[in-house]
Design a protein that fits this description.
- It is built from 17 helices and 6 strands.
- It is α/β, with parallel strands linked by helices and 341 residues long.
- Among the domains are: 89 residues, no CATH class; 67 residues; 63 residues, no CATH class.
- The strands form 2 sheets. Strands 1, 4, 5 and 6 form a 4-stranded mixed β-sheet that branches.
- α16 links the parallel β4 and β5.
- α4 packs across α8.
Length: 341
């Protein structure tokens, strides 16, 4: 809904010292690849001791870690149970949860929760890379249904408020540092409202071959054929397209991710397993000592000015330029500067 720079500014206003981007081929991907991007960037800084992340069941860190171990080092029994669960028509996450329960005793409800899923993915990545970074699960407070049962609303509920024009309610839901940026974005028209890119997405899908779409769907076998079949019925929006394809096996999130990768021309099976660069998006001026340390210790190129990183930032630049079609005159990543407060 908000640009890279505006989101970085929110984070800096609320206490972050440094904001680093995850390359779009990792950020627009399933949990394992997203975690590889996030943890991979932090590992490459060569300055990080702990990786903190939200989890609904952070108090059961040992269960999360047991699940991560099972997924990092899959044995034949796990693979067999996973295949059997998929054969019943379960979605991949649900089948994975079933296999974990049967092989490791991890309750299925643990791995059904989205933040737990990403937490396990972070732990798995750290295990596979042999990293010395210590995982630090933090309990994620709040309900994903939009209620105040735990004191915080999910981001989806906040986006719905903004889309519905109920911005006065945000005063009670956002910290001042974020609220100020949201108001500036709304006043300046710098907000990507739901459906704003629908025509671009649908036009892209109509011009793709089945093989191209299949590469964007990755291991979701058959999803490309369902999308093509639904497109023949001329859906009027992306949401209508997804609703017509969604099944027990193919979740809304998985379909949405496939469609977004299609728009950006990203194949699901990317050859790179870790990020190739570190992109600094914003920082506090008080973090200068940290930046100096990173510039000396980092294991990858550190890019603070996009124009100096053209060989690495092509996909990111395309993604941000397409995003800008939704709300404001097209802009170039190459002219951006780090956000500094």
């Amino acid at each position: 809904m908000f640009s890279t720079e505006d989101r970085a500014l929110m984070a800096l206003n609320c206490g972050a010292d440094l904001v680093i981007g995850i390359p779009v081929s990792f950020s627009c991907a399933p949990a394992d690849r997203f975690a590889a991007g996030g943890a991979g960037v932090l590992e490459a800084l060569n300055a990080v001791t702990h990786l903190a992340f939200g989890a609904e069941n952070a108090e059961n860190a040992s269960l999360l870690y047991r699940a991560a171990q099972a997924l990092a080092f899959e044995d034949e029994r796990f693979k067999s149970e996973l295949h059997a669960a998929l054969e019943t028509g379960l979605s991949y996450p649900a089948a994975q949860g079933r296999a974990l329960f049967k092989c490791s005793g991890v309750p299925e409800e643990i791995v059904k929760k989205p933040n737990n899923t990403l937490a396990i993915a972070y732990m798995k990545r750290l295990l596979l890379s042999g990293s010395g970074i210590i995982p630090l699960p933090v309990r994620r407070l709040g309900s994903r249904t939009g209620s105040h049962s735990d004191g915080f609303l999910p981001s989806s509920a906040l986006r719905q408020m903004i889309s519905a024009g109920e911005t006065k309610r945000l005063v009670d839901e956002l910290p001042e540092g974020s609220l100020r940026v949201v108001r500036e974005c709304l006043d300046g028209g710098r907000v990507c409202m739901p459906g704003a890119l629908d025509q671009a997405v649908l036009a892209r899908l109509y011009t793709m071959t089945g093989e191209q779409l299949s590469r964007c769907c990755g291991s979701r076998e058959g999803l490309d054929r369902l999308l093509i079949k639904r497109l023949r019925e001329s859906p009027r929006s992306v949401e209508e397209l997804i609703a017509g394809v969604k099944t027990k096996r193919y979740t809304h999130t998985a379909i949405s991710r496939c469609v977004m990768r299609a728009l950006l021309g990203l194949a699901m099976a990317e050859p790179d397993k870790s990020p190739a660069y570190i992109r600094i998006i914003g920082f506090r001026s008080s973090a200068a000592p940290l930046l100096r340390h990173i510039s000396q210790s980092a294991l990858l190129p550190v890019i603070s000015t996009p124009a100096a990183g053209r060989e690495h930032l092509g996909q990111d630049a395309l993604a941000e330029q397409i995003w800008s079609l939704s709300c404001c005159p097209s802009r170039s990543l190459w002219r951006q500067r780090p956000v500094i407060i």
